Amino acid sequence: MLTEFLGQQLQLKPADGGATALALNRQLYLLLKKAILDQVLRHGERLPSSRVMAAALQLARNTVMSALSQLEAEGFLETRQGSGTFVRFKRPANGQPSSPAETTGNSRLGFRQVSARGQRLLKQDTANELEVQPFTQGLPDFSPFPVAVWQKLLAKHWRLSYASMLDYNDTGGFKPLKRAIAQYLRMFRGMRLDDEQVLVTTGTQQSLSLCAILLADPGDTVWVEDPLYWGAAQIFRANGLHMHGIPTDAQGLNLVLSDQAPAPRMVYVTPSHQYPTGGVLTAERRLDLLRRCRDMHAWALEDDYDSEFRFAGPQQPSLHALDLQDRVFYMGTFSKTLYPGIKMAYLVVPPDWVSAFKRIHYDMNRPGLLHQQVAMAEFIELGHFHSTIRQARATYVQRRQALLQALAPCLGLQASISGAEQGLHLCLHLPQTLDDVALAQQAQTHGLTVRALSRYAIARQDLRGLVIGYGYAPLEAIQKDGPVLAQLVVRALRHRHA
Ligand SMILES: Cc1ncc(COP(=O)(O)O)c(C=O)c1O
Fold it and tell me: Where are the domains of the chain?
């Protein structure tokens, strides 16, 4: 890679056919020095041998050696006998960061040069800084995913590859994949839809972004659940929307509490399993939500992120299934059913919105990855999707049971569990006087990642508890670490009264 980078920049011949370009050894010296100073080449990095560099750059070996020895004399390179030539340059401690990757909230750059919107986004909690370890939530078990099958399908479609698969995709997704997803949603989520209403996206985040861009303007209001999923909150913030939190209870979003709220353009809901508390929106509330959306000329954004995993009680059809007015934008994802890094999800839009969404999806995201989409269509058609879900579900049944058992000693008047009937996490509610952030931090010191419920609040002051995942950690880890977590909770509850 280094030789290609250098090769592109070396001026082998005078550009204008006139005066001679800088001597090649000098050019190479300057290019390498700049790459070292700019940290393109990092301290400790090994350079290709002078022979390899000379051959790749089509230069005389002496030319290369002259440039390297000059840099070595200046202390930028170090030759170690028998192992090669290495970069020897660390940026001074007071040097200004030069890479954009360092412009985060934690860097020396600080917030000063970040846009006001960027600052608002950087101030929010992020899962990005949490260790992945027992009780990390949001992650599925990766083991049921049949890697060998997936590899075979990808390899097959790369072999059959044709030019259009290498281009951007302007159709909202590979047709057979849209067909397979639509069929799945008709059968398992009770939805009525045409294949063409499906758009393939790289995740719920992208689906939400498209909705935020096309359905609202900066300054508009979106009603959100309070407590709220961090990912959705960041998308709405980034799009300049005003989030009005509507409190949830054991049955999800409680719209009775919305009567004084400013009228929204959109209402964001997780009806199957409120994130993070896990309430299931009752049929009555679903119908009420649809009626209100109609009356307010607002759109419902249904995030159906984990409905494949239901462990107790009947599965409700989606909100979309009840919608006779084309008011619902439905979002599903393969992040939980397969794995998050697959970066594939789907957005179902009402028929009248298909062409606008396709167009803006193309303009904003330049979709592609068609080989993956072709492979996914076949993966579903051949039944692998369903068998992966089936296997994962069996695993989660055991993990969930183990976690519930471990947490039993915490339960009583002061603590209760919600949301354990579905999904990959549950919520342990704790008394308002307990510091759940401190408790989560304490768990962290024991190698356990749980999240404080209060961190998900939009305006509510009453939320205290822990959001605990059982999807990712193996059964043995839950059996071993569950009692440790329970003990921490019990101690925190007792300490309150001490
Ligand atoms: C409420 C909710 N929606 C959606 C997702 C999945 O998002 P994505 O498809 O962007 O991976 C998650 C993942 O944790 C989630 O918790």
Answer: 2-87, 132-139+394-497, 147-386
Q: Is the CB of 323 under 6 A from ligand 1?
A: no
- CA of 330 from ligand 1 middle (Å) equals 13
Rounded mean pLDDT, 181-192: 96
Nearest ligand 1 atom to alpha carbon 206? 10
Tell me which architecture the domain covering 2-87 has in CATH. Orthogonal Bundle (1.10)
CA distance 422 to 138: 13
C-beta of 207 in contact with ligand 1 (< 6 A):
no
Closest residue by CA, ligand 1 atom 4: 305
Q: Is the CB of 138 inside a 6 Å radius of any atom of ligand 1? A: yes
Place of tokens 């919305």: 258
| Reported CATH class of domain 132-139+394-497 | alpha beta
Per-residue pLDDT tens over the stretch 428-449: 999 999 999 999 999 999 999 9
- pTM for the model: 0.81
Residue 199 CA, ligand 1 centroid: distance in Å: 17
The partner residues of 248 in beta bridges, in order of sequence, read 253
Amino acid identity at 151: Q
Structure confidence at residue 26 (pLDDT): 85
Tell which atom from ligand 1 comes closest to the C-alpha of 345: 9
Nearest to 467 by CA among 184, 218, 274: 274
- DSSP 8-state code for residue 109: T
Distance CA 106, CA 84 (A): 36
For the ranges 56-60, 392-396, 490-494, the lowest mean pLDDT is seen at: 56-60
Spacing, Cα 258 to ligand 1 middle (Å): 25
Measure the CA–CA gap between 189 and 317, rounded to whole angstroms: 5
Decide whether any atom of ligand 1 lies within 6 Å of the 204 Cβ.
yes
Q: Does domain 147-386 match CATH 3.10.180.10?
A: no
Q: What is the DSSP string of 321-340?
A: HH-SSS-EEEEEESTTTT-G
105 ligand 1 Cβ < 6 A:
no
Only one residue has tokens 């603590």, namely 415
Token pair, residue 17, equals 């056919």
Q: Nearest to residue 396, comparing CAs of 417, 429, 416, 421? A: 421
How is residue 198 annotated by DSSP? E
pLDDT computed for residue 104 by the predictor: 44
Report how far Cα 173 is from the mean position of its chain's Cα atoms. Answer: 20
Q: Compute the half-sphere exposure of residue 29: CA atoms within 13 Å on the CB side of its CA.
A: 18
- State which amino acid sits at residue 202: T
The verdict on the CB of residue 379 being under 6 Å from ligand 1 is: no
244: helix, coil or strand? strand
Mean pLDDT of all residues in 131-160: 92
Q: Which atom of ligand 1 is nearest to the CA of 229?
A: 1
